[in-house]
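Per your request, structure below.
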């Protein structure tokens, strides 16, 4: 494949990892949003086992760990992120109960009904919203919680440019009522749903990313793959500025129910 025909998914993964590992977060979010989502969850104790799936370098995990007792296993596909994650955990003195492991969210290293809480910020899209909700459910205890953030449409109709972008990047994006219905159908009680504030994208994600982009472009001056990677990042940020009234991230907090004859 020539470079010109490459999509973001075909970029050199080492370059992508290097770029994103220089940031505290790899997706939109904030400590306030993590804590707000956590405020809807009421069953945690020192004995609890929590999983953070697609944890990245662990920005949200360290926030969680400061406010909950119990053990957190955080999982990400990319070893570089997990190395940084475990270094961060140690620096925060959390290494005894917060562990990063390399693995894939479609093949989790947990027992059935082992987990009290499954957390996943800006990452369930990698397996797909419905598939993740369905497949992860069995790892939760009865009455256990899931808290995930996911991209949503805010309106039924939207301009073609942004519609085409999402249909290409992640066609499973949907409206919030449809997503809540999917949560319910997958065997959970939807407990809370809220939209992430714009600052989670602008100040807390795009602003640090801009700085990382400059540093990265300097380091890889003349490298076409690196330049394309950054051009794509800037295109994504530009689309957000242009079309933010039509889409954003939503946090879904839900409790496992015994419905549908499922285990
Ligand atoms: N939760 C973090 C990272 C979100 S970015 C944050 O909010 O900052 C999405 C993350 O999913 C990346 O770290 C990426 O490496 C990870 N990922 C992608 N595919 C995955 C898979 N199959 N299994 C586990 N993690 C995956």
């Amino acid at each position: 494949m020539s470079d010109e025909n490459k999509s973001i998914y075909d970029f050199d993964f080492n370059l992508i990892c290097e770029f994103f590992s220089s940031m505290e977060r790899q997706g939109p979010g904030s400590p306030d949003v993590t804590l707000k989502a956590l405020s809807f969850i009421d069953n945690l104790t020192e004995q609890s086992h929590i999983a953070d799936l697609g944890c990245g370098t662990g920005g949200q995990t360290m926030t969680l760990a400061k406010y909950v007792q119990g053990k957190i296993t955080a999982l990400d596909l990319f070893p570089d992120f997990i190395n940084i994650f475990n270094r961060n955990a140690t620096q925060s003195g959390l290494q005894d109960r917060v562990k990063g492991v390399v693995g894939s969210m479609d093949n989790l290293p947990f027992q059935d009904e082992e987990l009290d809480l499954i957390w996943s910020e800006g990452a369930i899209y990698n397996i797909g919203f419905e598939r993740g909700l369905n497949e992860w459910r069995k790892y939760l205890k009865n009455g256990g919680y899931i808290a995930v953030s996911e991209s949503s449409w805010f309106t039924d109709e939207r301009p073609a440019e942004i519609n085409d972008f999402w249909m290409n990047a992640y066609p499973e994006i949907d409206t919030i009522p449809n997503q809540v219905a999917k949560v319910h159908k997958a065997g959970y009680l939807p407990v809370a749903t809220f939209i992430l504030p714009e600052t989670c994208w602008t100040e807390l994600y795009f602003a640090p990313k801009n700085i990382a982009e400059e540093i990265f472009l300097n380091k890889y001056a003349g490298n076409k793959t690196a330049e394309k990677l950054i051009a794509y990042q800037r295109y994504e940020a530009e689309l957000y500025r242009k079309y933010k009234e039509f889409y954003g991230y939503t946090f879904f907090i839900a409790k496992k129910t015994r419905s549908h004859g499922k285990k």
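The chain is about 40% helix and 20% strand.

Regards,
D.
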